């Protein structure tokens, strides 16, 4: 477990990295001010470093605010405009839609649209800063991989080769259960997201 000093050092390093587009003097002043603020707050509330860092804010937000105050637009150190990040709810919405759309109607368009939503969601989650690598793999396994494998297994092993003895009620029960798994996985991803 990280010590208070390590957490503060990591946090200030993140602020310094994110504010690389600031002039060096402004960046040093920003980091010094934040360091002083954190140490004063820590003296008042010993042991509450995680809460204090959360209250101070996300390093990206702090850097963007500092850039705006100086009249700069946020850029990367190479001078390229910073890529806008997708909100955490967007890929989760796409995952839920991807699971539900094939059952909207008999049109193949819904299936292709579902596939497009799923691929888009996977790409957004994989490139997102909202989750670490383990959370991404766990979330995508529960919301994509397991339901897709279960849908395919159900279709090829039970439904397609059957002579019609599989009832519609059983079919829709399986579909509903897999939808619940997808929604639960999206809920887990939402609860574990970082700001």
Task: Walk me through what this model shows.
This protein is an all-alpha fold. It has two domains: 4-69; 89-192. It has eight helices and no strands. The chain has helices at 4-18, 24-44, 49-56, 59-69, 89-100, 108-127, 133-159, 168-192. Helix 1 crosses helix 4, helix 2 (24-44) packs across helix 3 (49-56) and helix 5 runs antiparallel to helix 6. The longest helix is centred in the last third of the chain and has 27 residues, at 133-159. The protein is elongated and about 75 Å long.
What gross morphology would you assign? elongated
Taking all Cα atoms into account, the compactness measure Rg is 23 Å
Strand fraction? under 5%
Order of helices and strands: HHHHHHHH
In terms of structural class, how would the helical and strand content be classed? mainly alpha
> Helical stretch count?
8
Please give the alpha-carbon distance between the first and last residues.
Answer: 21 Å
- Mean pLDDT, to the nearest integer, reads 83
The number of domains = 2
Uncertain segments are: none
**Assembly state (oligomeric):** single chain
How much helical structure, as a percent, in the residues? over 70%
The beta-strand count equals 0
The major beta sheet can be summarized as:
none
